[in-house]
Design goal:
Radius of gyration of chain A: 18 Å
Largest sheet of chain A: 8 strands, mixed
Largest interface: A-B, 49 and 37 residues
Shape of chain A: globular
Oligomer: homotetramer
Strand order of the largest sheet of chain A: 1-3-6-7-2-8-11-9
Number of helices of chain A: 6
Helix content of chain A: 25-40%
Strand content of chain A: 25-35%
Order of helices and strands of chain A: EEHEEEEEHEEHEHEHH
Distance between the termini of chain A: 24 Å
Structural class of chain A: alpha/beta
């Protein structure tokens, strides 16, 4: 019987020694802000892939690489190590398709963090405001009060225009579930219209995150990367639309 | 692997001795009547929090407190003790998102009641009539015929304008499932339009309940509390709307 | 943890000796034809209740009896015994709310049939044609070819106007799943518009079934029973509508 | 308790010795291309049925054969053996109704392939383009780069007009999941409008597949077969529509 979730580490991972690692989560979400920032950092820092996650809570499809190679939908773990710093990245194609799957996957991510002895988790996302934003702010959330001042010191705001609200999906659940394991976690959300891959929101989040983890990353190629990602997502959505209509018809 | 449901009692709970406790359930529902009554009583009686319930049947999101602290969606247990009376309250952010989860959660609540040796359960809710109601009545339901006269003696009616019907969610299922464990349970439903947090319906339910359990609670601040709750719910719904659109787009 | 399905036999069942029993299934469905026929037979034959089935695949709600007593949604088993005949009836409030639940419940019904050593199963239903029908025919389906001639000898037809098609829910799945247990099963479907509780379709099915099992039942009160059932269903649907809107709003 | 999935081999299967078998999957999907090709090959090659697959992830209904015999929705395994060649076909009525069921079923198909020591899997499908296509191309996907040249040598193209995209359902997931078991697998997709059973797309796929497995099959009767299949699907969809409306009403 297929497992709900499988986590596989690559062979290269065995040689690694992680020192007080941090984990940065950037899965698909509002305005693709988290995904864009995390994948951009992986690219610019030449982080090394160390693992893969597959799950039957992801959409039931394979993804076609440009060369016609089909692969399961997946999440991936990357590692960047330099000057005593260990940064693990969690990125991927999809989040869960069901509510219960969201919880089970997010708890799995926290279990990975615990096993890797992660000291702090940063989850990245967008904060949808429904209209274009000039100079998008970065809004913060924490899973422990003591974590707030550090975020405020790099310009992250906790003043929402509307009070209350929540954070849906992995970026939020990781905060809640890692608290139960005693792991510090914060969420950085860039204000975004939410309709397109948003490099402006991503730049704001990247800037704040770079300061927080003391790891400068040149933001000048974010626009190019956003354009590529927008194109890739569009073609995937197009492809799925045609197929879903058909599957509904024949299901 | 994450548990379906986790029930955690706080440390303060160990020192407590409950004497013939009753359980009052007031989870979100029609016109937020049950939630408003139970949370208002907790506030006015200064009941003490004794436990928390988390579940993957709740919506997959965290809730942001005003100070930017993120926490998992949850239900909570509160305890009020005075003059030999022990009253446990069950309140919370959400009910289940799936039909099967509703059964599993409701059965968990009944298991808690059985463990605490609860003598009687009161589930609170609204009875949606679709139009504004002047002088809303309180409609009753019981899980044992013998429980009906006591309710009628405080003005609760069993005469529906329309015969038949049902009670959806925790307020109903707790009645059905607690009967199988031999626990008495009644449901009090205030007539309500159903469209807004309804302090008038709540006042009717509170008045009947106070008499039934012989615990007077001053109803004069119900309007203020209802206004606060309406505001909190609106902002949460707003927040989720924006996010859901996005998640649908990218999921 | 609550069971997926619980089957409870009443105390009176222990004294019974069933001789080559048959099982008649009449759960809710198209035009309520099966439910109407089976509940009418139970009423007219004064069959005795012998068991109850509860399941978390039923809708998450309790049903209110006229006297304010709340009970879980359920299916029921009734027994009629006379002159060496043993007839078990399976009726109830609901079918499953999920596709997987349909399979699990239908298999449970077949397991009950096997335990009771049922020789033949009759599942009853409506065959929706979308318009009013004068002199509705009874269409048949069998889970073994040898069962067809007996049905045809009492006027059941196997000539559909449109070829192909299927039978959704318990009435169909019981045929398929009982075959795997070596139990003979046939389905009788009365042609019906499908929009209302249909006593004309029920009369046709009752007439064919009475001949097949050699058990005459006076059909003259079917109209009254249909009118009662229509009223009960309407009020239940009304009640649920109001509640569901609200639950969607607050869920 | 009913199993998620049951795989039953017929008695005739025990006598067979499979030599380096290949597996051809043609389940329902876009334009019914895969189903049409596989069922047509089974018919023309007079392949022998060797097994059946039932699952609670299929729709909860039975299918009526022309003679009134009701049977569970199912997938079927057929075997063709000649001149040292062993070809197993996987065809059937339905794919899964849920995302998780898609993964579980596809993994079961790969497990079957592993047990039968299948050397190579061919999954067949349609590639929906939303408009009529003259001279439909066959698009390919592989689960290992080395498999691509063989496909290209028979005219299969890997040049999509739009980059990216995915393959939904069994045809795709089998590629991804069989890779984990070390089984080679390729997917052949005929370009199709997607709206009707498409014999033109099927002819293109059949032609490429025949060359790849060196097994010529006369394509001239594909049109007749497509017309039959279209009629069967229409009547099934008609039947389900009427029933679903009703089930929604009474559920």
């Amino acid at each position: 019987m297929i497992e709900d979730i499988t986590v596989r580490y690559l062979d290269n991972f065995r040689e690694k020694t992680l020192v007080d690692p941090i984990l940065i989560e950037g899965l698909p979400g509002i305005g693709q802000v988290g995904k864009l920032v995390a994948e951009y950092m992986i690219h610019m820092l030449a982080a090394e892939k160390i693992g893969e996650i597959h799950s039957l809570y992801f959409p039931p499809q394979v993804i076609l690489e440009v060369d016609g190679l089909a692969r399961l939908a997946r999440n991936e773990l990357f590692l960047y190590q330099s000057g005593g710093k260990s940064v693990v990245f969690l990125v991927g194609d999809h989040q869960s398709t069901s509510g219960e799957g969201h919880y089970i996957l997010a708890d799995c991510y926290c279990e990975i963090a615990e096993e890797l002895k992660v000291k702090q988790i940063y989850t990245l996302g967008g904060f949808g405001v429904g209209h274009l934003v000039n100079g998008p702010r970065v809004l913060g959330a924490v899973n422990k009060k003591e974590l707030r001042p550090a975020l405020e010191s790099v310009g992250v705001t906790f003043d929402r225009d509307e009070p209350g609200g929540g954070i849906v999906g992995a970026a939020g659940l990781i905060l809640g579930l890692s608290a139960q394991r005693g792991i510090d976690a914060v969420c950085l959300m860039g204000e975004t219209s939410g309709y397109l891959v948003d490099p402006m929101a991503a730049a704001s989040v990247l800037s704040a995150l770079s300061k927080l983890i003391d790891l400068p990353v040149d933001p000048t190629k974010l626009n190019d990367r956003a354009a590529e990602m927008e194109k890739a997502i569009e073609s995937m959505v197009e492809g799925e639309k045609g197929k879903d209509e058909e599957l509904n018809y024949i299901g």
